[in-house]
Amino acid sequence: MSRSYQLKRRAARQDQTRQRIIEAAVELHQTIGPAATTVSEIAERAQVGRVTVYRHFPDEPTLARACSGQYFERHPFPDPERWLAITDPIERLRTGLRETYAYHRATELMITHVLADARDHPVVPPCHTHFRYAADVLTEPWRERGRRRTLLRAGIAVALSFDTWRTLTRDEQLTDQQALELMLRLTCDCVDDRRERTNKAARVERRGPSRR
């Protein structure tokens, strides 16, 4: 057996061990949460020793980055770039919320524990950054300006939030579709009111001055 073959086999075994450790950590993070997960539990689930865990991941941030990288690779964020092709602002918002709520449901176990235990952990900001960009994309086609646009953007950000989705679907027992329609209505209320006033003024103008 050649030395190069032995080295390849050893590297493959190390990669397999590293993967088992990551898998074990991910499973524990989404069942008991990052705060309650210990190196001993990770080692036991991965069927390795504690020393082996530290050999591959010398500290918690290194392991957390590996876990989050793999998790989000398997659960990619909804893609706001695709929403740009939808020119109608309401339809774009509806599509964005539908895809986001489906994502929240698929990742609920993990995100619930991560936000509870490690909302400010260094691996979390990319998630926040993604949904801030998503809010920008969903706000872009609206014509509102100034304070009204600021409020609209804030409403969309709240509608996209995992916390909002979880409150509506778990605490209030709404379906994803009901949550979507509620947040669509609440977010667009100020815009709808403005359009209704504009339409009413236009109808009055077409009728002409009232006669008594």
Description:
The chain is mainly alpha-helical. The chain contains 11 helices and no strands. The protein has helices at 3-31, 39-46, 50-56, 60-74, 80-83, 89-106, 108-118, 125-139, 146-160, 162-171, 176-207. Helix 1 packs across helix 2, helix 8 crosses helix 9 and helix 9 packs antiparallel against helix 11. The relative contact order is 0.09. Mean pLDDT is 86; it is low at 196-205.
List the helices and strands and how they pair.
Blueprint: H1 3-31, H2 39-46, H3 50-56, H4 60-74, H5 80-83, H6 89-106, H7 108-118, H8 125-139, H9 146-160, H10 162-171, H11 176-207
Helix pairs in contact: 1-2, 1-4, 1-7, 2-3, 6-11, 8-9, 9-11
Sum this structure up briefly.
The protein has 212 residues and is mainly alpha-helical.
By DSSP, the count of extended strands is 0
What is the straight-line distance between the termini?
Answer: 107 Å
Share of helix among residues?
over 70%
Q: What is the string of SSEs from the N terminus onward?
A: HHHHHHHHHHH
Briefly note the structural class of the backbone: mainly alpha
Summed up, the helix count is: 11
- The percent range for strand residues is under 5%
Which outline best applies?
elongated
Over all CA atoms, what is the radius of gyration? 25 Å
Round the mean pLDDT to the nearest integer and report it. Answer: 86
The poorly predicted ranges are 196-205
Q: Which sheet architecture does the biggest sheet show?
A: none
